[in-house]
Fold this protein.
Amino acid sequence: MNTTTLWRNARIATLDPDIGQDGWGLIEHGAVLTNGASIAWVGQEADLPAGAAPARTVDLGRALLTPGLIDCHTHLVYGGHRAAEFEMRLQGASYEDIARAGGGIRSTVAATRAASEGALLYSAARRAEALMAEGVTTLEIKSGYGLSRDAEASCLSVARRLGQALPLEVRTSFLGAHALPPEFEGRSDDYIDAVCRWMADLHAQGLIDAVDAFCENIGFTPAQIRCVFEAARALGLPVKLHAEQLSDQGGAALAASFNALSCDHLEHLSADGVAAMRAAGTVAVLLPGAYYFLRETKRPPIEALRQAGVPMAVSTDHNPGTSPGLSLLLMANMACTFFRLTPLEAVQGITVHAARALGLRDRGQLIAGQRADFVAWDLQHPHELAYWFGRNPCLHVIQNGVQRS
Ligand code: NIG
Ligand code: FE
């Protein structure tokens, strides 16, 4: 059966470095030929191979086409919200003060444990739909608000079910080492042992794609993170880390020594951390929403990362405590205004580099052989993706070769 479709009459930002000089990989009067769920050919319409006989043709009306957006760091599954904590912080309390007083992550853990799986699925689906409306085709979701074996399993299976229920690819990360649950008070090493046991179990249930942890004064120590990472390595699972968000713990270098896919946040990253990430090929995931919402002033060392050639991704870090936003395009904009990324870097950060942060090489660029995930925008040039905010220029999303909307 002929399953080919020609998506024609578009300007295409392929992000293929081999096309043009400026990194956007622009093709004017372009077309994409898909075969089922993958891209068979991309080029100028006039150059369509003579033998191509698409079963279907879709006129994109001169829209701009880019790869599907990838949100590579979210905590999408949780109960409740933390608006009261936001008010406390506006009145002077710090994120750490609130966490040490038993609020913060722990309050979301209580609300998540109290919620039914159906309620968690419903609220997470609404959030996922908000991200998808702006062109997100791949979404990473972390656990980390259950913090018991069963509650973590529920959150991860909600994430898996989202990927089945919605036209969306979901990747899961097990973040058991996110915070110490109250029943382990004063016994953080015991908790880490428990996390490592649960990991094997949850992995056996097919619920984990990667393992994440929170290395911080109010999180876990580098020695504890090492135990978690060793357990992950023994199971063949890749790791990533919430590193150097509030202080420099040397977490990035530790994660790099385990060939981490990514280190995320990085406001307090040292020169040694940058070098270690570079050597390991670890992606730097920048989270300007959390930086903004916590009113941080110390920025990640962007210039050092750039000079070192460390790939930079950009993500929402959607969570109820530090980044309750649901716009990846706004994050691209903030990555430019707050962190001084170029618009090209910001767009690479929500496409090709975000894919790398998830260990995925089959998406993020519009190149033959990649998955047929792409977005048609009501825009002239892709740098506008990092320019407009509070406006959704998404016209159509093609997911796995099928038009979603
Ligand atoms: O990525 N830093 C740790 N984890 C989340 C925040 C979680 C929360 O406050 O609920 C983050 O910012
Ligand atoms: Fe996070």
Notes: The first strand starts at residue 4 and ends at 13.
